[in-house]
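Office hours follow-up: a student asked to see two folded examples consecutively, so here they are.
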Amino acid sequence: MDIQAQIDELRRTLNEHNYNYYVLDDPKISDYEYDHLLRELENLEAAHPELITPDSPTQRVGGQALTSFQQVVHRVPLQSLQDVFSPEELADFGCRVEESADKVEYLLEPKVDGLSVALEYQDGVFVRGATRGDGQVGEDVTENIRTIRSIPMKLEGVTGTLIVRGEVYMPRKTFERLNEERELNGENLFANPRNAAAGSLRQLDPRIAAARGLDMVIFNIQYADHAPFETDSASLDWLKSLRFKVIDYQVSSDMAEIQKRIFQLGDDREQYPFDIDGAVVKVNSLSDRAALGETSKFPKWAAAYKYPPERKESVVKDIVVQVGRTGVLTPKAVVSPVRLAGTTVTNATLHNQDFITEKDIRIGDTVVVQKAGEIIPEIVSVVKEKRPEGTEPYRLPTVCPVCGAPVVRDEDGAHIRCTGAECPAQLLRNLTHFASRDAMDIEGLGPAAVKALVEAGMVKTPADLYHLDRNAVAKLDRMGKKSADNLLAAIEKSKQNDLSRLLFAFGIRQVGQRAGRDLAAHFGTLDALAAASVEELTAIPDVGGITAQYLTDWFDSPQSRHLIAALKEAGVNMESHAQPVGDKLAGITFVLTGELSSHSRKEAGDKLAALGAKVSGSVSKKTGCVIAGEAAGSKLRKAQELGVPVLDEDQFLTLIGEKEGDEGAILALLGNSET
């Protein structure tokens, strides 16, 4: 078999398995076997780049991030639908349609709560994907659309132009996994799957979009050179034969039957992998649609029935408090079972203490519960006339219900957090942060590896990382002997890290990288820092009273003392490698711009900080000096406009003592600046 034939066969096989997995949800081979086939195709295409085509399975994820999205003028406008909110309004829609058309047949489909997107194909090859935008003009998100595995890149037997419309969504299970990962990484959580899908589709880097696990379902042909269909249902069946993932639909000529099915669809909404916020009713006949026409905003032949927020009464049986992976205490009401939006609800979120206090929610109260497009139901109000005697206002506990450590309220929000350094509820988050690049920098110990170690019961505190058994680690899923050796070597190497990294790794509130560096350099050892008073801590520049109190509280905690002792026993370094902080550049704020050949920007900043300087990311009237490397841009121009002294790389090296030169003249220049 020649090379072209091998490549064609591999592409055909991979596309078949993509279709089985992502459209039919019926995989025929394992992930390992699929990855092996994909690697074989990648190797052949790398050896013969002239044979690479845009529709190849290897071209799903581009390697180049965009700087912005280009605008796209839609060939056919992506109109919105007129909303109806009651059976009466839906009946009125049916009457208007049936006044203009005989023997009307309706098509009913779920309304997916996602983002509307148009896909364009030329002679069967996918060429462009664009968001709806305002209906007339959208954004070109082609590279991100390519990452959605259920979308075919090539359609067999299709010629000319074909434009289809569908909804991009994030499956609920994917949404839960993504938020779990974001919580581990200390990132803000997405409010719901639709927001997550929107944020993912508009990522400028397609590699990020690819990792988000988006999906898409098709519900309409916008334009086709060759698609002679009489009904919408026939066109959807044709799209399904082309291996698109097509929306489920039902057909009926009885509006009363359509109404009945709308309510049934609402009750069954949990069976879908995506959120739905209503049902779409469309005239099935394409000729009837043309006769009915459209307004300036909506087609007259379709309507979207929006499900109202379903509300029912229930009774608060108890209030339980969960501790999240970032230490946040989240109260949850245990309510008597009630049926809402197709599911039986037994719990409702209470968000935080402010929410409970504002609504005066108490154990024993009769409450109104709703589930309106959110994953977790919530309490809308209290039916106070049904409140039993003897109830008391509810207050969150003052200690963590998991580990018993004191809790504190965020100074800038409503969250209450556990302060325990070894709290089991925070273990995944704490370990992931401890091993992160800016903390102990343990290569290979990302969220997945941390989760595997915790689930295997090998790690209960960060100190346990330094006592892992090689053979046990090697037996973990996706690990093996070589990976285990690499991981253990990285853990061993981290023992020699500077104290500043360890301080950041502890996750003490308001102690970031810079504070960790300053504290380590000032006190020299962890023992000296742990013994420092609030007054001694606040004597350090940029360490305020709140941060000092957080530090002393953390070191006073029994869990913290236990962790420090265990890390010492494991041989983790507790001393600073930094030279004592000098004061030669005290009070001067530096800004670094451009590229230095001798140091990274972080290294250069550390050198300046070791001499007492402050390092900022932006130029202002308070800036004392700008260090300008190669390709310096707007910061250099602003410094020149403001009259801020500018040093080149040689002068910078002289200033920090790494190159001979007239240091006195440079200091005099800086002394004349506004500091």
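And the second, which I mentioned at the end of office hours:
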Amino acid sequence: MTTQITSVLVANRGEIARRVHHTARSLGMTTVAVYSDADSDAPHAREADAAVRLPGNTPAETYLRGEAVIEAARAAGADAIHPGYGFLSENAGFARAVIDAGLTWVGPPPAAIDAMGSKIEAKKMMAEAGVPMLTDLEPADVTEDMLPVLVKASAGGGGRGMRVVRTLDALEDEIAAAKREALSAFGDDAVFCERYLERGRHIEVQVMADAHGTVWAVGERECSIQRRHQKVIEEAPSPLVERTPGMREKLYTAARDAAAAIGYTGAGTVEFLATDAGEFFFLEMNTRLQVEHPVTEATTGLDLVALQLDVAAGLPLPSPEPPAAHGWSLEARLYAEDPANDYTPGSGTLWSLEVPGVVSRFEGPHRPGIRLDSGFEPGDTGAEIGVHYDPMLAKVISYGRTRAEACASLAGALARAEVHGLTTNRAQLVRVLRHPEFVAGNLSTAFLDEHGGEDAPDGPALAAPLADAEATAISALAAALVSGTAEHAAGPVALAQAGFRNVGRTLQKRTYRSGSDELEVAYVRSRSGASPDGELADVVTVEEVGPDAAVFSVRGVRRTLRVSRYPVPGADTVVEVDSPLGPVSLTEPPRYTDPAAEVAAGSLLAPMPGAVIRVAVEVGDTVTAGQPLLWMEAMKMEHTIAAAVDGVVTELPVAVGDQVASGAVLAVVSEPDTDTDPDNAAQE
């Protein structure tokens, strides 16, 4: 029996909501969005044919309220609900409620979600179906010779509730931490242990099944580049599978057997952990669309969302076998996070997100080039990135005839992208894509640990024709000259030439911050224009300065540096410089500082808004550099706040349960008082 779908509500937000809306519109369906208060002006809410508010900001108040989502569908006249990924996408109770409400559920049967919802039970079922797997270990039975082991949340995914344990004395604490994260993220604190493959490769198979008995193994993906057990770069096909005879057929058989064992229909992914020799073991099955589905679409020409909607409507898959794959595709997840600071997620204002070479959005690409799936529009300025949701800004996907072409295309697009206002993992992504080991296809889940010594935030090293410090200084010079030109042009008399003065020659100075470093830029303005002062005088010749760009000759090579300024009332002005030297993010402090904003030396500040969940010290305790003092929870992940230096805890203004803002003082560690009275010292 088939059902006509005329209007689909997407029970999600951001890029996946926009992705589903894109296909639904192409099929003639009307689209319905739901949005939290934080997302009231988000593109996914603006673009939909109808949008329904879910009052509140946190996921628990909004996108996780299944009854509110169903009521929104009824109110807007939707006859189907697509869950996207995350939130309620693998919630069997929600799927049943959707069906009971007389709506079409665009997903697998609730019983299949139940079967795979507990990783512990799922592994038992897969073992019975003959799918290869790692042996589960009871935490109490783990011995020294079994190490390292991986603690995993039974109901989890996305790296939450997951810990690698290498010493027995750490096992108990890591299990407790995994339980806390699992309970916060999934409402279930069940965890288990399994053997940990230190240099495993993460291989997954996309399956698509209909209600008429056809099960496709659409293609495999490799997702071995991970941080915190979360995927960062994915690709199709897998380099390992490509070069291992017979592995693809065995993987596809195992994936089809897994889907058939639970009566699966719709889109799903069967995930495996593999060795370099081609041996593989079942990890889990994700009963939903995956974040990385675009690489499969690029290499097969399929629209997986369209197939999901067809299967949900009761239609059969169009053929007994899926189309053959061609070419190569890679996806990079661009996050607002700081790789140099333990991948701390960021929040704040995204001023601009522009990626060159985009040939498609939310589909394909059907020819070599870049696909961009993002929750933000290129023209959006001042979008706020909050703390309630995942910090992914965009998925940048390349498609090429060969892996080398796809790697180079994606690295180039990311390197030339304009990402303004937030620290991101963009520089790390480019370094990985250009790393000789990655280019050679020598991957593992430990790749970033083994080759992550250069995992700095965005900076000149993306291109690095010059040393980082010199490129930063040149970028700061461009910022200073452009800023000065703009200020003069806005005055009572517009200047015919940048730097024109009635006086013969004046020295100008500006101060910027680049990360934690402060740098002063000096240049000379005269009737003939501007020129750098100091060390850059022998390196840079100023050819032209305009309101948003400067053209320099750098050691005889002409380069254009684009400058974007984002003044923030009462705060530092954000200055972004983009050029072939690499992107440089600067802040220009206000001319007059507020004394109340200064903090004491030794202060440990909250890296993001969040909640204090544990405190391990008291005022007066002596601590050493690197010692954990307290723990915060933000974005359903735990973050450790450690002492930066040896000293004594002199202030501790927070307690367990406190909600703190980004930049709030969490603790103050002062150097111990060494001014001891020698007479008293002699008596002691």
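Two things to take away from it. The longest strand covers residues 215-227. The longest helix spans residues 468-489.
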